[in-house]
Write a structure and sequence with these properties.
Blueprint: H1 3-9, E1 12-13, H2 19-24, H3 36-39, H4 41-54, E2 58-60, H5 68-72, H6 80-96, E3 103-108, H7 122-138, E4 143-149, H8 152-169, E5 174-178, H9 192-199, E6 206-210, H10 215-228, E7 233-236, E8 243-246, E9 249-251, H11 256-268, E10 271-274, H12 282-298, H13 300-308, E11 329-334, H14 343-355, E12 359-362, H15 374-385, E13 388-394, H16 400-413, E14 417-421, H17 442-454, E15 470-475, H18 482-495, E16 499-502, H19 509-518, E17 524-528, H20 534-543, H21 551-560, H22 564-579, E18 585-589, H23 593-602
Parallel strand pairs: 1-10, 2-3, 3-4, 4-5, 5-6, 6-7, 7-10, 11-12, 11-18, 12-13, 13-14, 14-15, 15-16, 16-17, 17-18
Antiparallel strand pairs: 8-9
Helix pairs in contact: 4-6, 4-12, 6-7, 7-8, 9-10, 10-11, 11-12, 14-15, 14-23, 16-17, 18-19, 20-21, 21-22, 22-23
């Protein structure tokens, strides 16, 4: 089959996750998964067969991260040729067993991990890519697939090298895929337009987006790419966001109906290849294959017309506790600005203060880009505006000693309100949160703060003084297991939590269960988020774990059409009014709509 011709005249279905499928079979993500081509070939073969059986047109070799530099981290650098050759062989054998033509794509990740990048020069990266691509092409792959590149310079390097090897060894087509964050920028800060511009001079068979984002986010990036290029586009979204179910275990909840709904939109947006990345399964890809088959039969004329077109596309004073005042509290949660500055947050906080807000909670950053620490921003807002502030502190990638030192320093500067969270590392491309470490979770952080308040450190040693932290914790009434959420709230109270803040709620059933369990032991603030429209609600309902959006809310936002933003505020205000009397107060969270929501709540 001529891959270039297929990508310009038809739509191909790629396979789904390999790494997270191997993870689901009991393999840790912090090992060299490509090495399973040698040690557990039957498992790899079974996954390939399941995707072929699902009806995909292309399977990817289990060689993501199989460069010499990455394998060296696991002591397997000398096996680079054997691992890649075995990966190509296993995929080709699965394709050969199909009752139709199936392509094999040689999967090539960035030559270095995020942690290696600072220590490895560009020429070393190029050499590692060249070695891997030469093995894959020599082993008979139909196309080289560069995937999950978060740094544009590495994608450009890899494209140059892969195209040079491909021309020298038989003109094997090359596809280049970047990965984007929720802000539609790569990890290196580049937009889809900038990615297209950087790759414009390369004779790529296709370019596209994969990993990090779920179907909705990838659709937005795909649309931006389409504006700026006529090159065939590929898209392989994650199955939404993963849920952490253990120290090194993650799972996804996205359902096939939602995945197929967005597959149709990806096709309408001009995707030439649709598949899946982390968390996607053969059942979801089978549903996607059926949607593509329907698309091919219903819109063949439109596809041909599109292909024919050539569109070019000071000292801080002590404060009263946050809940010392009687009555119903209306607070706001702010996030550090993605720009890394504080002016934007300060301006918004001042506007909220003028509207009547006296308590601001600063959320922890979930972005891989450099941002102001939540504790520092909370301190800054208090010092500049006199607001009472809470700062969210997460435990991921922090040793207990580092947490303890930072908290003692924060207390010395005047920080008092702390919201304890386990947290999850931001997605950096490869596999979900594999780089995260946790000495303690949120319960351990609560216990640490309670000990400091009692004058002892985490190991029980006496301190020279006692702290006076106001200890908060998160609870999620939207969990698909409300009983577990209620039990978790009680565990946090027993550990020393003095107040609770919920994750954003959109219905009352789960909240009532949690409040009933807490039974007034500590104040509870309920987070309310004005939804900006149907797309956001649809994303939260289907791609983000443990978020419950009622069908009536989805229907109301969809029916509102262009007035959905106003409808989202109406829904949030109505929910907040229902919560009044049930809990100590509400925390309005979200974007620019928080000001309007707060004015209506306090008006």
């Amino acid at each position: 089959m001529n891959v270039r011709e297929l990508l310009t005249t038809s739509v191909l279905v790629g396979d789904g996750a390999m790494g997270t499928m191997l993870h689901a079979a009991g393999n840790s993500l912090d090992q060299a998964l490509p090495a399973l081509n040698l040690t557990e070939p039957e498992l790899v073969r079974t996954i390939h067969d399941s995707y072929v059986g699902a009806g995909v047109d292309l399977v990817q070799t289990n060689t993501f991260g199989a460069s010499r530099l990455r394998l060296a981290e696991y002591g397997a650098a000398d096996d680079v040729a054997r691992i890649n050759a075995a990966g190509a062989r296993l995929a080709r054998e699965a394709a050969a067993r199909a009752d139709r033509a199936v392509l094999v794509a040689g999967s090539v990740a960035p030559a270095v991990s995020v942690h290696q990048r600072r220590r490895v020069a560009a020429e070393e990266r190029r050499a590692a890519v060249r070695e891997q691509v030469e093995v894959l092409v020599g082993a008979g792959v139909d196309v080289v697939l560069l995937e999950t590149f978060g740094h544009l310079d590495e994608l450009v390097e890899a494209a140059e090298v892969a195209l040079e090897v491909a021309r020298r060894t038989g003109d094997v087509p090359v596809i280049a895929q970047a990965t984007f964050g929720s802000d539609r920028h790569t990890l290196s800060g580049h937009t889809p337009h900038e990615v297209v511009t950087a790759l414009a001079g390369f004779p790529l068979a296709a370019m596209g987006v994969n990993c990090t984002l779920g179907p909705q986010g990838c659709l937005a990036v795909l649309r931006e790419l389409r504006v700026h290029t006529a090159v065939p586009l590929t898209v392989q979204p994650n199955a939404g966001l993963p849920r952490r179910v253990g120290p090194a275990r993650f799972e996804y909840d996205i359902d096939a109906d939602y995945f197929v709904r967005y597959t149709r939109q990806l096709l309408d947006a001009g995707a030439a290849l649709v598949g899946g990345c982390c968390g996607t399964t053969p059942s979801q890809l089978a549903a996607a294959a059926a949607a593509v088959a329907e698309h091919r039969s219903q819109r063949a004329a439109e596809v041909a017309e599109r292909v024919a077109a050539t569109t070019v596309v000071p000292e801080r004073p002590e404060t009263d506790g946050p809940f010392s005042a009687p009555g119903h509290v209306v607070a706001v949660e702010l996030r550090p600005a993605p720009t890394g500055g504080v002016d934007e947050a300060l301006e918004l906080a001042a506007e909220l203060q003028e509207a009547g807000v006296g308590l601001v909670s600063v959320a922890a950053s979930s972005s891989p880009r450099a941002q102001v620490n939540s504790v520092d921003l909370a301190l800054h807002l208090h010092n500049r505006l006199g607001l009472t502030t809470l700062a969210s502190v997460t435990t991921w990638d922090r040793t207990i000693m580092a947490l303890q030192a930072d908290l003692l320093g924060a207390h010395a500067l005047g920080v008092r309100g702390v919201v304890c969270e386990t947290g999850t590392p931001p997605l950096l491309g490869d596999y979900p949160h594999v780089d995260g470490i946790w000495d303690v979770d949120s319960l351990g952080l609560i216990e640490l703060l309670a000990g400091l308040n009692d004058g002892t450190d985490y190991h029980g040693l006496r301190l020279g003084t006692k702290t006076s932290f106001e200890i908060g914790a998160r609870v999620n009434p939207g969990s698909r297991d409300p009983g577990r959420a209620a039990a978790g709230a009680l565990d946090k109270i027993a550990a020393g939590a003095q107040f609770l803040i919920t994750r954003p709620v959109h219905e009352l059933a789960g909240l009532e269960r949690v409040l009933e369990a807490v039974d007034g032991r500590v104040p509870v603030l309920v987070a309310v988020r004005p939804l900006t429209g149907f797309d956001e609600a649809d994303y939260l309902a289907h791609e983000v774990p443990d978020v419950t959006i009622p069908a009536a809310t989805l229907a109301a936002l969809q029916d509102a059409g262009p007035d959905a933003r106003a409808a989202g505020i109406d829904l949030a205000v109505a929910l907040a009014d229902q919560i009044r009397g049930m809990a100590k107060g509400v925390v309005v969270t979200g974007g620019s709509d928080v000001v309007e929501a707060v004015r209506r709540l306090l008006g």
